[in-house]
Amino acid sequence: MPQSKQESQRRAKANEAAAAKLKQLEAFAEPSEGALTTPDGIAVTDNHGSLRAGTRGPLLAEDFFLRDKLAHFERERIPERVVWARGAGAHGYFELTRPLGEYTSAGFLNDAGVRTPVFVRFSNLTGSQGSADTVRDMRGFAVKFYTREGNWDLVGANMPVFFVQDAMKFPDLVHALKPEPHHGMPQASSAHDTFWDFASLMPESTHALMWLMSDRALPRSWRMMDGFGVHAFRFVNAHGVPHFVKFHWKARLGRHALLQAEARRIAGLDADFLRRDLWDAIEQGCFPEWELALQLIPEAKAASLGFDLLDPTKLVPEELVPPLVVGKLVLNRNPDDFFAESEQVAFHPGRLVPGIEFTGDPLLQGRLMSYTGSQMARLGGPNYAQLPINRPVCPVHAFHRDGAHRTAIGQGAVSYEPSSLATGAEVRVDGGREAPQPHANGVEARTRLRANEFDDHFSQASFFWNSVSPAERDHIVGAFQHELAQVRVPAIRQRVVDNLAHVDSRLARKVAEAVGAAAPDAKAAAGRAGFRELRLKLPIETSPALAMENGNGHGIATRRVAVLVAPGVEVGALRALQQALEEARARCILLAERIGSVATAAGQQLQVDESLCSSASVLFDAVIVPGGAACVEALAANGHAMHFIHEAFKHGKTVCVIGDALKLLEPLGLGDAQAAAAVAGVIVGRNDPPSRVQLVQDFLAALARHRHWTRAHLDRVAA
Ligand code: HDE
Fold first, then answer.
1. Which pLDDT band holds residue 27 (cuts at 50, 70, 90)?
2. CA 4 to ligand 1 center in whole angstroms
3. Tens digits of per-residue pLDDT, 269-323?
4. CA geometry: angle at 678 spanning 677 and 682, to 5°?
5. Do 389 and 119 form a contact (C-beta atoms < 8 A)?
6. CA-348 nearest atom, ligand 1
7. Which of 65, 157, 558, 583 lies at 20 to 30 Å from 718 by C-alpha?
8. Is the CB of 369 under 6 A from ligand 1?
9. pLDDT value for 460
10. Residue 392 in contact with residue 344, Cβ under 8 Å?
11. How many other β-carbons are positioned within 10 Å of the β-carbon of residue 126?
């Protein structure tokens, strides 16, 4: 279901609200002329002298104005474009003169007379930012259309063909063209060994070389050169009928070139010749103009052209497919800020509005993969589309979040879909279940759909549920109950239990009861967008391998065992346990009321590692409480100790009580030795030497099981 009208209205309102909030701040803003300030608006009292200790002393660290000024200055440069680095741009508009409804559904190509704002950047392919304008080179002709349906970038050139056919060869071409890596020469010129070495080995470059060696490579003015989209694109009208399209910009002033000798001299006399020419013409009100002319080719006709339309080293002769003039491009405003506009403008051939599509041209396809990363690296992060020059004029409802240099201020909690929180209604943006669309090259089917079997969402969830142990199932129920109890919106809790009804009805019911949801309704879930009623059948019902309980591993190395002691502790059996644990590489940690030592019943000093009040049973895997009347009495009177033992018991851990320490289990209803020993993971020992071997064996075996989930009524244990 496509995004609902109600949802877009809501988003538009949210955007207005955000804008209004900003305006509230703007209401306090004052004009930015006047006294010099820091970027934070604090008045600068002296912009000439730094703060120092005495007139001849060192600078002071508290001169934050100087520090900020230098810190910003040091970071003024950003990486130049990998290619097309030298260039400049201007603002203007595109006006449609011939509506194109029969070819494309693109809104701005349907309404004659409508003016679409544009920003155009002209550039040189080869040279660095500081090179000369007039060198022999291909020129970039990149146009950003700020349409009401989003930004469309037509990132073309002043020649209709390119040097390579496949994106894979583009980095090689550029490496060959750029200054040679060992000595960094020559700048901004194709006249050197590596370029001609590469070109001579790449016969596909021959056509582009003809253009590069022609007068087209030496334009008299950017205003006097034609532009080309180079690749075949594809128009699709409202009925889905496709046409291949090639874009042409035809300069109103005609096509004029410099002589090679002139170009060379001008490069020395005025390296900015072409950008100055554009700037001056616009300042003088002589706004440069181009006609947009289209070569429209029905898909059926493409095959009869005599060459492959998707090959970017081929042009379509105008005599074969006459270009149709459909509008004009006018540049009428110079940028205010070269860096913020010409330098930060970010083009991307994949930014296409509905009704314009790309094709399988292998060079174009590669371009689609390249530009995003390039802009992120150049402009410092993922939010470059929020820079003023790149911002669309239509509403933006993207769910992209955060990232360096974010300037948009979002609204509310929802930055994902599907969602129901923002509107109260369920919103899901997907294309439904349409049949796959033919690809632009007319051969392959392209689709966002997954294979049918992917529509089964529940069979393996049930399989998992059926495979785990009862204790694990209880924990799953508890986890759902706990998580959903934190969810404040009843409809969300209900949706989850309705979904769970497809997994297991008992699970769903138990969760529903605990979170105040109505009886789970599997049908309600199945009726929801995004749900598919498909249940695959596995040849087996359960998989014991999935149960955690069946994966206890080997040994008890590194397990942490707490030993709770107090003065008067009897250590006979404890010593045997400690020795066995040490041999198995488990750790024994002694806890008492205080850190230090306690006296044993035999009068020896026993080292204490941690105090009971600063520790807790959750930090250990098992607990041992050795006997000794005085020791047990002291522990019974210690709230921390009792909580420790009972909590370990409640959490299913191995609890070992020796001699009279059994008394400490009385509050659990386990004061009787036999009853206590019958409980899984409760080890009842004695201090007499003959019983120690068994005690040690039982304890190690219980510890190896890690947890004991079959204890009854654990929920009644107060811990
Ligand atoms: Fe580009 N191109 N390109 N390109 N291109 C870039 O993006 C790339 C190609 C063109 O004024 C980069 O921001 C690959 C053909 C222009 O800002 C980068 C391939 C044509 C501009 C990039 C191509 C172009 C770019 C460099 C082969 C003629 C400058 C910096 C698959 C139609 C736009 C940047 C402006 C910019 C990659 C092929 C034109 C590196 C990988 C063919 C006019 O992303």
1. confident
2. 36
3. 999 999 999 999 999 999 999 999 999 999 999 999 999 999 999 999 999 999 9
4. 50
5. yes
6. 7
7. 558
8. no
9. 95
10. no
11. 24
Q: Determine the atom of ligand 1 nearest the C-alpha atom of 363.
A: 31
Among 129, 155, 379, residue to substitute to test ligand 1 (most atoms within 8 Å of Cβ): 155
**What SS3 class is residue 462?**
helix
Q: Specify the pLDDT at position 18.
A: 66
**Class of residue 333 by CB neighbours under 10 A (exposed 0-12, middle 13-18, buried 19+):** middle
- Residue 713 falls in which region: left (phi positive, over 0), alpha (psi -120 to 50) or beta: left
Residue for token pair 């191995």: 654
Q: Which of 290, 148, 298, 182 is nearest to 227 (CA)?
A: 290
- Mention every residue, 6+ apart, whose C-beta is less than 8 A from residue 246: 160, 228, 229, 232, 233, 294, 295, 297, 316, 321
Rounded Cα gap, residues 161 and 234, in angstroms: 17
How far apart are alpha carbons 534 and 433 in whole angstroms?
15
| Ligand 1 pocket check for 362: Cβ under 6 Å | no
Q: Which tokens is 526 given?
A: 């199945």
- Tell me, using a 6 A CB cutoff, whether residue 82 lines ligand 1: yes
**Which of 91, 90, 94 has its CA nearest to residue 329?**
94
Give the tokens for residue 616. Answer: 């807790």
pLDDT tens-digit map of 419-465: 999 888 888 887 655 555 555 555 456 777 788 888 899 999 999 99
What is the Å distance from ligand 1's center to 558 Cα? 58
Our answer on whether the CB atom of 410 is closer than 6 Å to any ligand 1 atom is no
**In terms of Cα–Cα distance, which of 219, 227, 332 is closest to 281?**
332
Query: Using a 6 Å cutoff on CB, does residue 170 contact ligand 1?
Result: yes
Distance 104 CA to ligand 1 centre (A): 25
Classify each residue of 150-173 as buried b or exposed e, where b means 16 or more C-beta atoms within 10 Å of its C-beta.
bbbbbbbbbbbbbbbbebebbeeb
The residue nearest atom 3 of ligand 1, judged by CA position, is 367
Mean per-residue pLDDT, 560-571 = 97
Contact yes or no for 342/87 (Cβ under 8 A): yes
Which parts of 125-174 are beta strand (E)? Answer: 139-147, 150-157
| SS3 labels along 280-322 | HHHHCCCCCEEEEEEEEEEHHHHHHHCCCCCCCCCCCCCCCCC
- Pick the residue whose CA is nearest to atom 44 on ligand 1: 371
Tokens of 713: 């009524």
Q: Is the CB of 229 under 6 A from ligand 1?
A: no
Residues 6+ apart with CB under 8 A from 605: 597, 598, 599
- The rounded Å distance from CA 94 to ligand 1 centre is 22
Bridge partners for 122 per DSSP: 88, 141
Cα angle for residues 661, 665, 671 (degrees, 5° grid): 90
CA of 647 to the centre of ligand 1 (A): 65
CA of 448 to the centre of ligand 1 (A): 27
Q: Take atom 32 of ligand 1 and give the residue whose Cα is closest.
A: 156
For residue range 86-143, what is the model confidence (pLDDT) as tens digits?
999 999 999 999 999 999 999 999 999 999 999 999 999 999 999 999 999 999 999 9
- Distance between Cα 83 and ligand 1 center (Å): 7
CB within 8 A of 439, min separation 6: which ones?
360, 445, 446
